[in-house]
Amino acid sequence: MPIRRFGGHRSVVKRSETPKLSYGFSNMNVSRSGYRVFSANSSGACSELAKKITERLGVELGKSVVYQEGNAETRVDVKESVRGQDIFIIQTIPRDVNTAIMELLITAYALKTSCAKNIIGVIPYFPYSKQCKMRKRGSIVCKLLAAMLAKAGLTHIITMDLHQKEIQGFFSFPVDNLRASPFLIQYIQEEIPNYRNAVIVAKSPSAAKRAQSYAERLRLDLAVLHGAAPNLESNMGDGPCSPPPARSSAGHTGLELPLMMAKEKPPITVVGDVGGRIAIIVDDIIDSAEEFVAAAEILKERGAYKIFIMATHGLLSAEAPRLIEESAIDEVVVTNTVPHEVQKLQCPKIKTVDVSMILAEAIRRIHNGESMAYLFRNIALDD
User: Fold this and answer.
1) How many helices (H) and strands (E) does the chain have?
2) Which residues neighbour 206 within 8 Å (Cβ) at sequence distance 6 or greater?
3) How many CA atoms lie within 13 A of 214 on its CB side?
């Protein structure tokens, strides 16, 4: 080890030591570990959920501008640095679904090209979720949208009550499918008088599992509606309906397949006792209200004296508010995953449950690397 003399004093210099340089970047890691929350909606009504989420998180909404140009093209301008940060894009879906999708895609791509570390989409109602199965000569549009979101730069999605749980398999990145059932069950317990005299109703056999989950949690009976009203029948069978072309070849006569009988649904019937009780119909989406109105009429005929509809996503499109107002339905309860303030003005029967709390907690846990299992405690797959 070399020894140097300086003015009569000896100092020992260790070869392994290297001088430390400081360039005034002591806060670099702090800024890089931060996160921002942006809203991808151009309309103020759709940004209400984003404002509630940021208020619960105690952060400010990210500075960006999303607008439509004169030729109807969508433009997004990010007004602050997002380099190396976790970015959460909150996108609620209004009636103009396709515009909202383009706003989300362009916002995600703008943040990707601005070197954001992770881009997480918070999409409470996932659009095109009804088109998740092959119908005749159509396509699985939901899978196409999943591929588009991945291409735009999203690395994670937070959503709520997907129409089919299998939709998660369309994505090449993680999907957290939150549940609204705890909030709706709490509303039943606190806001429906004498709910112990209620019966949970599934409006179709396919919704029986969800209804059974509600009934078991509330310790209530279960009823199932079977059949369909004649004016609601629709030919949604899989495969083409046109007959195969006639073969002109004399060498091969083709295969003789068994003749399949066409499906014919009977009129709506109720499996279960609803007489003198409160009927609570549960579902994930209420869009056009014809099926719910028809179900309410049958339940009223069978003796139910109050009828409630509980759904996660209140799309309430077309004439749904008017139909609900004129029907035997007493109350429709939906969450604020989809903006529906205009519909509430048209129909006072529509009530809203706020789910911003669980969305804010999901954002906090994902950013901090905490487990999401707490948000799914006592939650069944069928909820």
Assistant:
1) 10, 16
2) none
3) 33
Query: Strand, coil or helix: what is 222?
Result: strand
**What is the rounded distance in angstroms from the CA atom of residue 358 to the CA atom of residue 179?**
9
Residue 47 CA to its chain's centroid (Å): 16
The tokens describing 255, both together, are 């295969």
pLDDT at 89 over 50: yes
Are 307 and 334 spatial neighbours (Cβ–Cβ below 8 Å)?
no
- CA–CA distance, 27 with 30 (Å, rounded to integer): 5
CA 29 to CA 150: how far, in whole Å? 28
Amino acid sitting at position 159 = T
pLDDT in tens, 227-247: 876 665 444 445 445 555 555
Which phi and psi angles does 207 have, rounded to 5°? Answer: -95, 10
Residue bearing tokens 């919704």: 207
Q: Which two tokens stand for residue 186?
A: 């709490």
Q: What is the mean pLDDT of residues 311-324?
A: 94
The rounded distance, in Å, linking the Cα atoms of 325 and 292 is: 12
Residue 328 backbone dihedrals phi, psi, to 5 degrees: -80, 0
Quick one: pLDDT at residue 65?
93
Please choose, from the candidates 47, 108, 46, 45, the residue with its C-alpha nearest in 3D space to the C-alpha of residue 74. 108
Q: Three-state SS for 135?
A: coil
Question: Strand 118-123 to strand 198-202: parallel, antiparallel, or no bridges (unpaired)?
Answer: unpaired
